[in-house]
Fold this sequence. Notes:
Layout: H1 6-12, H2 14-25, H3 34-48, E1 54-58, E2 63-66, E3 72-75, E4 80-85, E5 91-98, E6 113-114, E7 119-121, H4 129-142, E8 151-158, H5 169-176, E9 181-184, E10 194-198, E11 200-209, H6 225-237, E12 247-255, E13 265-274, H7 277-297, E14 301-310, H8 317-332, E15 339-342, H9 347-353, E16 358-359, E17 366-367, E18 375-377, H10 380-403
Parallel strand pairs: 5-8, 5-9, 9-16, 10-15
Antiparallel strand pairs: 1-4, 2-3, 4-8, 6-7, 7-18, 11-13, 11-14, 12-13, 17-18
Helix pairs in contact: 1-4, 1-10, 4-10, 8-10
Amino acid sequence: MNIPDPGEWIDSRQSHLIKTLMELSAINSGTTNLQGLAHMENAFSELFQPLSSEVEIIASEQAKEADHLGKVHTRSYGNMLRFCKRPDAPIQVLLVGHMDTVFPFDSLFQNPIKLDDNVLNGPGVADMKGGILVMLTALEAFEGVSGCERLGWQVLLNADEETGSHGSRRMLVSAADTAHVGMIFEPALADGTLSRVRKGSGNFTLIAHGHSAHAGREFEKGVNAILALNQAMAQLAALTDLSRGITVNVARISGGSAFNVIPDTAVCQFNIRCALRQDQQQLKLRLEEMLEQWNTNGDVRFELHGDFTRPPKQVSRAHQLLMDWLVECGETQGIDIAFKDTGGCCDGNNLADAGLPNLDTLGVLGGHIHTADEFMLMDSLAQRAKLSLALLQRLLLDGDQLLALREPDLC
């Protein structure tokens, strides 16, 4: 379609965007709610299909994981959606979003509510159903821009980002190989600040196997898995080094049964985050050394499951150029764009590790995500769509500069 003034057209869509977002928010799409995610799949297919030349539903891979009781399960995830336009154009942009939320199907937090004229509270309104609508609206407007045929785009919507993108990571990395720049629509902060450097992250489950016995009659024959795990957890926590940006969070423990039974199993689940890729590699080696030591020096057998699934995201020259361009795009619209480092992580980590420069907080302005107080600022739907449109137009004009910096050389 021909749009004489794309910015005015986006502004005219504001009430429609709010109505659509409230409808999407009311669909529970927690990562484990495969039925709800199927509804989201249908909803976003209807929204993106008229804009796309290629539409594909992609099955996510399964993944094995150990739960908080030490049982290993094979986990399935919702489907991915892929939409594509002009795959042979000289400039290729990968736009990424996720359909899942952190709220389970039986959560009490199910429906969006307008708290005032500009604040919408609801599951996924910021993280990131609102962001996907920003993406869609920017693309719709871009398709009315003169010369848009020089830029091709691919949209990937996954259904497992909130649990680490285990089932979609391979597809995301494959898509990164065919693109020149990535745009991810995680929410910005409420003041509009975007993320710059991100820490890497890994989730792990440590299982201790002792020996059960009657706590009264045969206490001496038991081997207490909880006590052994407690010593191991202290060593894990000691890996924290705030001066290097390394944190180890012992997040959940479980074990034991009746008071008169020596516990034969205990489980610890923990998260490690670090700012540098070399620290992540060294920590993985250190965990392997600790596991070997625990299994050599005692009567308790230990198992370790999990891995680092989000590499640290650092700033390459191409990434810096993208940030500079976004600042300039903001200036043309009277918006001050600022960036700051964060300990959080997202699919932008994995895309950057694959060599794709990307901006990963192009979504709506909001806050309190992952809680029942999650909110977004409604006027940011149109504002952020216009900002992403401006960035797409800049890529159309100056994308060749970015292509020359495609290698992930760090600043």
